[in-house]
Hints:
The chain has helices at residues 16-31, 52-58, 67-85, 102-111, 148-153, 181-199, and strands at 2-7, 36-41, 88-94, 118-121, 124-127, 132-139, 166-170. By secondary structure, it is α/β, with parallel strands linked by helices. The strands form two sheets. A five-stranded parallel β-sheet has the order 2-1-3-6-7, sandwiched between helices. A two-stranded antiparallel ribbon has the order 4-5. The two termini are 15 Å apart. The relative contact order is 0.16. Residues 162-167 have low confidence and may be disordered.
Amino acid sequence: xxxxxIDSSILGDASASRGLTRDLVDTLVRTHPGxxxxxxxxxASVAGHLDGELLAARSTPAELRSAESRARAEAADAxxxxxxxxxxxVLGAPMYNFGIPSQLKTWIDLVAVAGITFRYTEAGPRGxxxxxxxxxxxxxxxxxxxxxxxxxxxDIGDPEEAExxxxxxxxxxxxxxxxxxxxxxxxxxxxxxxxxxIVA
Length: 200
Ligand SMILES: Cc1cc2nc3c(=O)[nH]c(=O)nc-3n(C[C@H](O)[C@H](O)[C@H](O)COP(=O)(O)O)c2cc1C
């Protein structure tokens, strides 16, 4: 099994989501001996925003690219390939300014490539990257349960309703992490406790 472990927190060792993704991956490796883990730290370095130059570089045949556009396209292709090769993705997704970190949005922009990882059909977009399970460790400083912001960020979705080829499971959404030490500890403990069940 190929595991892709992604962190996107900018808070380094103080990050809550980094601790949760580490617990998840440690448990997965323990329960799936022989699993290969690839790690990408989006919080440490952005892979390169999807701008006009990168878009053009990716759609230019390799032999016609400049040295700079070749380097950019190859770096972006490596990110896409990691996604493509993964059977299971463990994703740390903190809430910053009511959304995901811009680095994580950039990663999504790099892996969502029409004709490679998905295709448009009359019935809507369809995945081309094979069966994958995505486990998301979503964290937030405030309380968002019952609010549109909670539905968008923490209530990732019902796996039963997810696309057949993409199962999405929330780790339990640790929220209220900035509302006091006791709330932070109990929210993180609840999320950590759910790790074994999610992995099973
Ligand atoms: C720049 C920044 C913006 C934030 N914006 C929000 C926000 O909009 N809503 C919220 O509930 N918490 C917000 N927080 C708090 C984080 O969600 C909280 O610290 C959480 O633990 C982040 O996950 P992490 O520790 O893995 O980085 C913000 C934190 C930072 C550093």
